[in-house]
Amino acid sequence: NNDSLSDIIVWTPAINTTGVDHLLLEFDYLEGGGASDSGTVVIGVGGTGSPVTILDPAKTFTGGCGISGQWTHASIYLDTIYNNQFQIYVGFRWQSNGDGAGTAPSFAVDNIEITDDVPEANFAMSDDSVCVGDPVDFTNFTTSQNATYAWAFGGSATPTTSTQASPQNVVFST
Question: Do 146 and 77 form a contact (C-beta atoms < 8 A)?
Fold first, then answer.
């Protein structure tokens, strides 16, 4: 409920990630609050003293579904620096300006799961039979939300490389 507390973090117990390679965090949440209030997901390694924000989910209160909004599912692959750690802690942080003007509940979390799940690469192209000079669009359907991309199309393409998740208008001259 609304109160004057302005920075609250609720932490999971210590999680041992030794031997895991692809940590996936999933949870359901409600987030209300005023414009200057925010619910975020934070992580700490070895303790809870220096939390690092890893996700700032969108508010779920948009005027419909009652005062608290609609339960929303969130998932994020954790950065590989959190693999093979003896202790990580995942926290759910509520920061408020303390004016008590937000919705109740301002931030609620349920169904928290952390699994060792390999991201699945999945891409599609607009056409696999094109003429020289025709543009090709690539669409990303990969399951990882924090992946980086390094496309290399070869010397006969414009552009020759891309770091976009879904490169568009790639033209091959041969």
Answer: yes
User: What is the mean predicted confidence (pLDDT) over 44-54?
Assistant: 92
Query: Is pLDDT at 99 greater than 90 in this prediction?
Result: no
* Token reading at 12: 């999971």
Q: Please provide the average confidence, as pLDDT, over all residues in the chain.
A: 83
Mean of pLDDT values over 123-144: 84
The closest alpha carbon to 147, from 160, 161, 163, belongs to 163
